[in-house]
Each structure stands twice: as C-alpha cells, then as structure tokens.
Design a protein that fits this description.
The protein has helices spanning about 10-20, 25-30, 50-55, 85-100, 130-135, 180-185; strands at about 5, 65-85, 110-115, 120-125, 145-155, 155-165. The longest helix is centred in the middle third of the chain and has 13 residues, at about 85-100. The chain has about 190 residues and is α+β, with helices and mostly antiparallel strands. Helices cover about 25% and strands about 30% of the residues. The protein has one domain (about 5-20, about 35-185): OB fold (Dihydrolipoamide Acetyltransferase, E2P) (Beta Barrel). A hairpin with a 2-residue loop joins β3 (about 110-115) and β4 (about 120-125). The protein has a five-stranded mixed barrel. It is built from six helices and six strands, in the order βαααβαββαββα. It is globular and about 40 Å long.
Length: about 190
C-alpha cells in the first residue's frame, strides 16, 4: 500500500525555491490565504545518496559549514533509531532554513533518524511530526522512497534531510523493485 506524507508548510519553501531557482520566503509569508502547493516528485531526481553528495561535493572540511540545498530522491532502508541532531548538524539546519526564507523551521529539525543505503548507515534530519508517521508506516528493514534535500556539509561530511517519503509493501519477490520501476517509468533514473 502506497502512503505519502505531506509537509505542506515546509513544501511552500521548497516550491518557492524550485520555481526560478531563487531562495525566497515561502508563499504563506506573503499571502496567508493561499493553499499549500501540490507536491511534485519530479523536482526530486532519483539517485543514490552518494550521487546526491557527489553532484555538489563537500569541500573536504576546508569550511565548517557549506550550504548545498539540492533536492533528490533515494530508495533507502529504514533503520529506526532516533537521536538528537548533533549541535553542528543543527547549526547547518539553522543556516539552511534561514537561506530558504523560513528560519523558524529550524526548531522542527532537532532529531535525526537512521536509514541505510547498502551497508552505509546515514542519519537524516526530519521535521517534527514526520518521525511519528515513519514509525507508524515503517518497520526496521522496510524500504522507502525518500524525497530529500542535500542540505549541505558539516566539516566536509554531507547532511541530508527528509521532506517526504513513500512506502510500499511488495506482494511477492517480483515486486521488490516496485519503487525503482515506478520511478523509471514516470520520470527516469537520473543517478
């Protein structure tokens, strides 16, 4: 069963950023009566986390904080552990949310959840509330299609956040690559 979780307030900032490439304030800051934009998965090219980071490489630690702000999607495995975001990660989140015109959003990213891609475990920042949905929808070891942001780098290491995700329950072994096949049919693999 496909499940999609929308984060309307945050997506307003993402849509403003995606349209015209300018980092502007969310539409709600200008006109509160407007509806939340529809989520557009085509704005998130499918690739591995390594390719997302390689598309805008970290500077090897020459600068403590580097903003990247690059959208991507990746098929990863939910590991289920939750931790407080390290202070340096939270500082980058604060800088990022300020750069996209929503500095108040930073306070919603105080926790991180573990995922894996291959043998590598990655801690990703999530806005509050989304963690509860993940726990309801996913069990440890479940695969999900994550729509995320390569926020930037802390001491030369990438930091990712999750905007939205999709889950699926394959009916049989043939369905194992459902997400990959669906995306390739819809808008093609880019990484």
């Amino acid at each position: 069963m496909m499940s999609v979780v929308l984060l309307a307030a945050f997506l307003l900032a993402l849509q403003a950023r995606a349209q015209g490439g300018a980092l502007t304030a969310p539409a709600t800051a200008q006109a509160p009566a407007e509806e939340a934009p529809q989520f557009d998965p085509s704005q998130y090219p499918l690739m591995t986390l390594a390719k997302a980071a390689a598309a805008a490489p970290c500077g090897g630690g020459k600068t403590k904080y580097e903003l990247k702000d690059r959208l991507f999607s990746a098929e990863i495995v939910f590991q289920g552990s939750v931790r407080q975001a390290p202070p340096s990660h939270f500082e980058l989140i604060k800088r990022w949310t300020k750069s996209i015109g929503d500095p108040e959003a930073a306070s919603r990213y105080k926790k991180q959840v573990s995922f894996s891609e291959g043998k590598k475990v990655v801690w990703m920042s999530l806005p509050e509330g989304l963690i509860d949905y993940l726990r309801d929808d996913l069990q440890v070891g479940d695969r999900a299609l994550v729509y995320g942001v390569f926020v930037g780098c802390v001491n030369g290491k990438p930091l990712f956040s999750v905007d939205e995700y999709e889950t699926y329950a394959p009916a049989d072994e043939e369905s194992e690559d459902y997400i990959t096949r669906a995306l390739e049919a819809g808008f093609g693999r880019t990484g």
